[in-house]
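Exercise 7b. Backbone tokens:
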């Protein structure tokens, strides 16, 4: 490129000198289409930024000819920062952004050619759901049966496949015309006409409001490029090099968008011998991704986009990046072993030069609460004894519902944490109200936001006033704001209501005037809105303690606007509103190297692209992870396995895998089988601190017609007459009130029911894959182990993956399919816990004490245990009242015993 004062021209060796062979090949490749198969932690962002610099310095491209696309604002900011350090200030002028941000820029410039004015509003999910509710109300659609969220999901599916509303109507409701106020649905029970009609009316009202939703940003851009050839030609000439990160997560609409921008289907001739993209013909396309990390099918992502890249783009080349710079070899071996069970994938095996590293730590808890407690204790140990900052640790889980018990465990241990994916800042009511004012100022046609603020703060304009204005607007096929402007023409409106509407009209007119005069100062506009609307004044006068935090949130909003002014050239209010609309969950995370002083909790989907020295991967049970709905669908199971691969490879130094034997589901305690993903990891890679939960160990003892199973776990032994630091007393369970049960068969992976006092006879088998149900006690609570034990039936399965499955509870017991099952009598053993106060609490909180002092025990000392017999002390740990000794009991195994509870005597 010609000389530019803001451009740093790096010599070739400086761009590739510190890269490995495959990375250097990817940076230097000359050709129309390149797929960089970037394994987890393989340095793809470095390769992508170096390739951009290479294109500028070695291919002679202008910065304006490069379009780089990522999936999150955080990733885009990181790439822009790295580019700035690499090539200088010219990076700030380049198109480095998310798909949605790039489309906003295109639509702001050229959207009017498809009927979209440049000041359009971007609706977030809450705005969209509110609009759906209004549409459903007009057509008397039951929103309990057709929830706004489910309708929006169906509309999103339509848009991701580039199916417009007219096509849906032609198939399911050809007699409906958008704008109709009444429509009679024909066939009862068929949901598709409902979806089609709501979709069409939803789009119609979005157009009236000059608004779009997130999916529209992609869809309308594709529409623009397809229907306006001169616009398509402009962008194809402008962008000669297109680079897309995380290509495995693209949906069909994004796939088409890339092809349209690149001109792949424009049938323009290209020179196969060309050494650069030139000024005509298809743009050169580079995509970076990993098919093993495709985890967003539920959002419409299509893994075929990356799998078929070489078919879709002529003369494409693939370069695989397999050297990992993040994790230890043990962690990578585990990830490789799990993902190898997926079929139809490009062979890839991650490796690292970082060394073998620590073994993975495995732990089986009795319940989800005890799983959380154990994790909290490990975190405290790592922080207090190993000196690791809390911000180095992350807890990851399959579904948001799992966070509750984990949060409780951290709170009880006084561990600071941050929850990613909770209520986002811009979704808080007071912040959303303030932004609604700003949206209505920029776009008065935005009915959703205008109606939201009509009575915020309360000004005597309730449902009746809103209905009168809405009806008047509908009768004239106009916007809500138009009806406010024509207030004097509305018949039947009371004087008090009319005065309040007039005051609101004057307020909004005044604010619009102020915003027009101060468009480059969004923070001043925010301050004016908060003051003139009296939102801030009323919150400050409130005696509700929650309103104090709402004031702080509004203060933060003004600070965000001020920061936007400082960091953004050509600042506008509309530009600021774009940044608030395009925020993702992962954008809440602090930057790399920032010590938040908190443990991070997040779902595995949110964790994509992140890394932590210490990772706890929780809920490793059938029906939890993999999710229950994936059990009978191989495509979904493959995606769950890719999600496991993503989770494993988030860990840099140490990985913990935990599971709970019992987890609350739908208001009852359900027994959970270990996840099949645990079996797919070689046993040599895992150091099990506790391989089986207490109930599983007892069951194993019963199957062996005895109760001596060794208990070689972290908690020592458990027996009728003692309360060691053991599996039984540690869990929330005391066994043996006075119940009895009988059933016809047992199973290695059978069904089990735990009753309270009374009898559970002849448990009726339900249906279910893999694990089991529980009985409820007379109080309505599930009594885990308080009285009776019952086993159900099992049916064998020949499939290595089908042997594990979703857990389904049906009230009594459930059947399970297993690769290893057997029938036989169930040996029920009733035991009496001597420390009833221990039920429902960790062992460390039990008050019992046998007055032994850790200072009296040393390595090599001989002791005798009431159950295990003679042993030798091999380790002591001084933890105050919860001190622990580790004892080698020879053939019985090595046990860890809490000193104050263990029935021992020093010899």
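Sequence design result:
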């Amino acid at each position: 490129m010609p000389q530019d004062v803001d451009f740093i021209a790096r010599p070739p060796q400086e761009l590739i000198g510190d890269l490995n062979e495959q990375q250097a090949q990817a940076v230097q490749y000359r050709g129309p289409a390149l797929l960089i198969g970037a394994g987890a932690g393989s340095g793809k962002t470095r390769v992508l930024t170096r390739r951009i610099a290479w294109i500028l310095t070695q291919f002679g491209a202008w910065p304006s000819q490069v379009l780089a696309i990522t999936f999150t604002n955080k990733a885009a900011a990181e790439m822009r920062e790295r580019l700035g350090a690499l090539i200088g200030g010219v990076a700030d002028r380049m198109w480095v952004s998310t798909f949605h941000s790039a489309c906003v820029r295109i639509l702001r410039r050229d959207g009017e050619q498809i009927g979209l004015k440049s000041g359009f509003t971007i609706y977030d999910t809450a705005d969209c759901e509110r609009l759906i509710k209004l549409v459903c109300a007009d057509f008397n659609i039951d929103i309990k049966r057709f929830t706004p969220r489910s309708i929006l999901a169906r509309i999103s599916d339509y848009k991701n496949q580039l199916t417009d509303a007219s096509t849906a109507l032609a198939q399911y409701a050809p007699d409906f015309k958008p704008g109709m106020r009444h429509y009679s649905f024909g066939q009862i029970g068929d949901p598709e006409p409902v979806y089609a009609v709501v979709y069409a009316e939803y789009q119609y009202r979005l157009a009236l409001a000059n608004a779009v939703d997130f999916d529209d940003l992609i869809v309308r851009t594709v529409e623009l490029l397809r229907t306006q050839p001169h616009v398509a030609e402009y962008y194809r000439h402008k962008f000669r090099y297109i680079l897309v990160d995380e290509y495995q997560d693209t949906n069909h609409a994004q796939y088409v968008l890339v092809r349209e921008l690149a001109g792949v289907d424009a049938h323009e001739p290209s020179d196969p011998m060309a050494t650069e993209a030139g000024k005509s013909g298809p743009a050169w396309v580079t995509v970076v991704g990993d098919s093993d990390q495709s985890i967003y099918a539920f959002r419409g992502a299509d893994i075929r986009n990356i799998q078929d890249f070489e078919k879709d783009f002529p003369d494409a080349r693939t370069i695989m990046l397999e050297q990992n710079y993040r994790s230890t070899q043990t962690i990578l071996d585990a990830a490789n072993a799990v993902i190898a069970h997926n079929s139809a994938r490009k062979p890839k095996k991650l490796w690292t030069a970082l060394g073998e590293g620590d073994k993975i730590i495995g732990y089986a808890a009795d319940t989800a609460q005890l799983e959380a407690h154990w994790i909290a204790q490990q975190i405290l140990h790592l922080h207090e004894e190993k000196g690791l900052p809390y911000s180095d640790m992350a807890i990851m889980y399959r579904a948001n519902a799992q966070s509750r018990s984990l949060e409780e465990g951290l709170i009880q241990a006084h561990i600071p944490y941050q929850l990613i994916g909770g209520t986002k800042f811009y979704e808080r009511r007071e912040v959303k109200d303030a932004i609604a004012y700003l949206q209505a100022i920029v776009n008065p046609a935005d009915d959703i936001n205008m109606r939201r603020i009509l009575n915020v703060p309360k000004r005597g304009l309730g449902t009746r006033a809103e209905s009168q204005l809405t009806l008047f607007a509908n009768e004239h096929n106009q916007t809500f704001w138009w009806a406010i402007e024509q207030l004097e023409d509305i018949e039947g409106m009371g004087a008090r209501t009319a005065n309040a509407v007039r005051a609101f009209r004057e307020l909004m007119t005044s604010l619009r005037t102020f915003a027009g005069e101060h468009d480059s100062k969004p923070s001043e506009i925010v301050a004016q809105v908060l003051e003139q609307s009296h939102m801030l004044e009323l919150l400050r006068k409130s005696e509700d303690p929650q309103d104090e935090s709402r004031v702080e949130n509004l203060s933060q909003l003004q600070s965000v606007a001020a920061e936007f002014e400082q960091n953004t050239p050509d600042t506008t209010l509309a530009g600021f509103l774009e940044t608030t609309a395009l925020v993702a969950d992962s954008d809440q995370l602090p930057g790399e190297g920032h010590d938040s002083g908190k443990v991070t909790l997040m779902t595995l989907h949110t964790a994509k692209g992140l890394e932590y020295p210490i990772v706890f991967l929780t809920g490793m049970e059938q029906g939890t992870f993999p999710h229950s709905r994936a059990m009978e669908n191989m495509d979904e199971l493959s995606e769950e396995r890719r999600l496991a691969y993503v989770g494993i490879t988030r860990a840099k130094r140490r990985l913990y895998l935990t599971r709970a034997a019992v987890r609350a589901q739908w208001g009852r305690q359900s027994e959970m089988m270990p996840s099949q993903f645990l079996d797919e990891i070689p046993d040599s890679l895992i150091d099990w601190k506790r391989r089986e939960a207490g109930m599983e160990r007892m069951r194993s003892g019963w199957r062996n017609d005895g109760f001596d199973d060794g208990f070689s776990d972290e908690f020592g032994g458990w027996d009728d007459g003692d309360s060691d630091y053991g599996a039984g007393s540690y869990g929330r369970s005391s066994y043996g009130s006075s119940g009895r049960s009988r059933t016809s068969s047992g199973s290695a992976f059978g069904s089990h029911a735990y009753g309270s006092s009374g009898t559970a006879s002849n448990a009726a088998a339900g249906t279910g894959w893999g694990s089991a149900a529980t009985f409820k006690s007379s109080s309505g609570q599930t009594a885990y182990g308080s009285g009776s034990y019952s086993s159900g039936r099992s049916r064998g399965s020949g499939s290595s993956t089908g042997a594990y499955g979703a857990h389904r509870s049906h009230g009594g017991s459930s059947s399970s399919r297993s690769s290893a099952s057997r029938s036989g009598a169930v040996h029920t053993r009733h035991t009496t816990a001597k420390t009833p106060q221990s039920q429902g609490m960790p062992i460390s909180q039990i008050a019992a004490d046998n007055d032994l002092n850790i200072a009296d025990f040393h390595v090599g000392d001989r002791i005798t245990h009431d159950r295990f017999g003679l042993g030798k002390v091999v380790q002591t740990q001084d933890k105050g009242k919860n001190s622990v000794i580790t004892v080698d009991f020879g053939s019985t195994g090595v046990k860890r015993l809490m000193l104050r509870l263990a029935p021992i005597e020093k010899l």
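Instructor comment: Residues 485 and 505 are 7 Å apart (CA to CA). The first strand starts at residue 33 and ends at 38.
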